[in-house]
Amino acid sequence: MTIGALREARLLGTDLRAGLRAGGAPAARRIRRLLRADAVLLADLDGPVARHGTLPAGSDTDALLAEVYEHGTALRRPPLCAAPLIVAGDLSGCLVAAGDLGEEDLGEVARLVAEHLDHAGLRTARVRIAAADLRTLRAQISPHFLHNALAVIAAHIRSDPARARGLLTDFADYLRYSFSTQGDYATVAEELQATQTYLELQRARFDDRLDITVRMAPEILPVAVPFLVVQPIVENAVRHGLERKAGRGHISVSGVGEGPFVVIEVEDDGVGMDPALARAVLAGGGPPARGVGLANVDQRLRAVYGPEHGLLIETAPDSGTKVIIRVPRFMRGVVAE
Amino acid sequence: MTGLLAIGFLIAASLAIGVYGVRAARTTPDFLVASRRVGGGWNAMAIAGEYVSAASVLGLAGLLLKDGIGTMWYAVGFTAGYVAVAALVAGPMRRSGAFTVPDFAEYRLASTGVRRLCGLVVLVIMWLYLVPQFKGAGVVLQLVSGTPYWVGVVLAGLVVSGSIAMGGMRSATYVQAFHYLVKLAFIAVPAVFLVVRAGAETRARALEPVTVPDGWSRPLLDIGDAGYPLLSTWSVLLATTLGAVGLPHVVMRFHTSASARAARRVAVMVIALLGVFYLFPVVYGLFGRVLTPHLVHQGATDTVAVVLPGEVAPGTLGGLLTALVAAGAFAAFLSTSSGLLLALAGGLSHDLFGSGLSRLRLAVAAGAFVAVLLSLPAAHVDINVMVGWAFAVAASTFCPLLVLGIWWPRLTLPGAVCGLVVGGVSATGAALASVAGTYASGLLTVLLAQPAAWTVPLAFATMVGVSLRWGSPPEGATRAVLRLHAP
């Protein structure tokens, strides 16, 4: 019996996943069954949104709702009973039921519905936060990088004008890609292009003591992946792996297809890090200097492809870092515009 | 011995290309530009390489020797299939972004259930297709090294699953393209040699065979001498042409093209590559009729391409040429089976039971194991006939799904599911019934042995009929279809 009630409560949450307007109808049906009421009506502040069962003839729901919204408390106008939905402290709707039922029961169910609506709100907020994070990531080309890139181009202008010109074009391409606002997905080829322009600029700054290898199976180039997933990883490898290392550094970006999956690996032979630190960085903790890059990429991959497709980091102090992305080649809804 | 060496060398080379052959470049522009420009040609060769299976290298020549020149309709159908592919599915498939047929089904019908069903159909087609490949490998190994048939089959299973596990297909495009060249060279060189060495008299006899059974030189196929040559020919043509549209591992390759336009162009290139290739099995078949007619009585016609060079030039040269053909056949076997096995494993792990790399490896092993088990009793079924069944099932299931899914916005979920089930069950059932027994009625024999003539229309009719009657097109169907055709 208890388990059954819990199950109903959980399913009510599933109904209300996308809010009262989207899931009101099944929720009303479930609440009516739960309360054994003759009829159930769910309303938000704009008026009724869903009803199940037939309300007694002549019942003036509009007046009832207005009264509830005015006082913000439960009301009893036999045969109707109404309880406000108070989501996160704000009055945001009303639950009306008809039939022989206790005021306590109705209040309890109303609180449950409010709780679920709160969760639905949080869920949409989470999506919004992820989108905002992506915007941050796009806007977050570090001022250091901008300064360094321009400085290195300036340094080449007299000594090697052709190279300076090439670098400037790279810089422009890079900026355009990072600032582009359309679409959440890009092809692997586009991601790679952005990564390569970034690496070219970094290489010039490192005075060519940075070796770059790109190995990519052609069959994965047209695959769509979330926007800006490879470049932040490469940036992380350069900033935290290679910048602190003396002497030459090597970074390799490789991609292959493995059956229905695409595997992209970014490997550097820099200073590496403590695996515990890597874990903390992915979890969003760690020192702020490590930036939001890796954690954000990890989060977005999980959000798009499911929890088993997050980033994989293989690392140890002084033995380089290898970051692996493994995602399905096709996922419904993932399309590069 | 030479044969074994040649095969060993081939496997080593394929593995090396597979593991290290991913295009390496230091800087952006050359890398991306190169991969875009070279892409089309390589991709076409890769498709042809994967497609030209043991069926084409061994089976076609063998069946030609046995059943007569009407067999060439198989080659026509195998090639013509790409006309249908280029015209109907290559571009839209590329635009959909779907990698496999189950992906496409999910994209178009917005249901994960239909994805599972498609995964199941993938398994059936791939196993039907894998068995003749393994049989080919077993037969060739038996010929060049004298080991029993089952040893060859088991070894083949181990080699293919092992090479996939070692990452041998990580750069599938280059491995498959390499295999196309190997196959073409290894089948063409001995064939040209045959023609030159055989002498004028044999050449004349090959073109005008006299000691052949009735109907051998008739340009129509007559399955099992059932007396319905026209029906048989149409049925085979329908199966092979439309089957190519629905073969899961073929559809996958178009995902590699940079754009829909490129995908179509690749399909056209494939037609040319296949056209060149299929000239050569004919040479073996015609000469086999003159030089090795005894193979027909031994029921070993699938070996004709390997046996022939030795007949014409005994000694070292013949041995060398035999080794070449054997290696070519093995390349055919290796490339096709790896492609098939990967598609099968993808279906098994990705579509049927949640994803994950460890599951993929497990699925490769399981898929190869089942294929080996099925191949052991298949020693006496003609390679080409089995391949024909794989095509027939593909033509009766995925071909209607893809064609209607792409070109008919009103296709509904119940319609697609019913069509898939009806087409799959009828085609597979007919093939099984055909192996299980012999039938007195000639018409029945043909309809069971080559079922495409009735299963394909049946599947199309079911999909259309049920779609019109039940259910409504899934939400967003119009947009999904529009996307497939938007430039």
From TrEMBL, chain B:
GO cellular component: plasma membrane
Transmembrane segments: 72-92, 113-130, 150-168, 180-200, 234-254, 266-287, 320-348, 360-380, 386-408, 415-440, 452-470
GO molecular-function term, one example from the UniProt record: symporter activity
Chief location of this protein within or outside the cell: membrane
Subcellular location: Cell membrane
Coiled-coil positions: none
Matches recorded under InterPro entries: Na/Glc_symporter_sf, Na/solute_symporter, Na/solute_symporter_CS, Sodium:Solute_Symporter
One of the GO BP terms on file: plasma membrane acetate transport
Keywords: Cell membrane, Ion transport, Membrane, Sodium, Symport, Transmembrane, Transmembrane helix, Transport
Signal peptide region: none
tRNA-binding is among the record's keywords: no
PROSITE patterns membership: NA_SOLUT_SYMP_2, NA_SOLUT_SYMP_3
Membrane topology: Multi-pass membrane protein
Pfam families: SSF
Family the UniProt entry places it in: Belongs to the sodium:solute symporter (SSF) (TC 2.A.21) family.
Protein name: Cation acetate symporter
Naturally occurring in which organism (per UniProt): Streptomyces chumphonensis
